[in-house]
Amino acid sequence: xxxxxETPVLVLSLLITVGLIAGGLWWFMKKSGFDLxxxxxxQSKNSASDNSKMPQISSEQPSGSTFASVxxxxxxxFRYGGSTSWAPIRLAVDSAIQAARPExxxxxxxxSSGNRGSGSGLKSLIDGQLTFAQSSRPIExxxxxxxxxxxxxxKQIPVAIDxxxxxxxxxxxxxxxxxxxxxxxxxxxISNWKQIGGSDIPIKAYSRRINDGGTVEIFVQDILSxxxxxxxxxxxxxxxxxxxxxxxxxxxxxxxxxxxxVPQCSIKPLPLGRTQKEYIAxxxxxxxxxxxxxxxxxxxxxxxxxxxxxxxxxxxxVVVKQNGQIDQxxxxxxxxxxxxxxxxxxITQAGFVKIR
Length: 356
Prior knowledge:
Elements: H1 3-32, H2 36-46, E1 76-82, H3 87-100, E2 104-108, H4 118-126, E3 132-135, H5 141-149, E4 153-168, E5 177-178, H6 179-187, E6 204-207, H7 214-223, E7 234-235, H8 239-247, E8 252-257, H9 258-261, E9 268-270, E10 272-273, H10 302-307, E11 313-322, H11 326-339, H12 341-349, E12 353-354
Parallel strand pairs: 1-2, 1-3, 5-10, 6-7, 6-8
Antiparallel strand pairs: 3-11, 4-8, 4-9, 4-11, 4-12
Helix pairs in contact: 3-12
């Protein structure tokens, strides 16, 4: 055979051989389930740090609308604690979470020393006594620094909106207070209601101590500009005790988380404003008087809290220990429970304003 006739035959034979090899390789990969792209991806993931395997904290809406639909939920018993303002949420939401996800067990842990509150909860979290914390104020720089000394970061995830409401005696005749007037009362600069348009009645101001929780810390920071209370302020242990004192004192005044104040029958929640021309009520109009209560109760002014027109609003946070361990996974799962449609609805039923 001539060289010219041999060349096409060799080329044809080579093409047939390549085709047979390619076909055999395709058949093998299909039958064995072998995926080259997955292998490459797996090798890439294995070269990343172990923390990449943990669920990442995100501000995006979790998938699904119910507790049952939340993914990456760890199994175990998880201890949590912190803000007293969170008590209605713990009562309404946490039992529902455990009913829907029995593998995710929760236990509220009292602080080993000191009073309950955001500060004590964050301290217990940093010291390793809690899986995650509930806070009614942002994390402070010193708390972030202490966490870094322990080898991890802290992350706060907002899950609800709250505000501070001012309670006075229901028989006190005053339309409202400006933020500046409220500051002056708790600094001791205004001591009689007649100084701000009321009757000649001495003011009796009540507060919990600054170490008693995030609500007091927010008040001191945002209203008192970081300064201390005046000598006129009488300190009480609980909001229940303070509201009883206000109900029995015509000149009494107290502040607390809005859901703890607005629905109460024995006191009157007071409108607040940045100026006297822009008082915003923490309750929905029309106002429910003491005579109508408890058949009817005042409800939160949700629109004013969500828009920020009410002058003293804040977020409630789930605080996450970012250590790449199951603590982080559990905290993120808990926040995602609260951010579902079911969680946000239960937060509303607990008296707070949903953040979504």
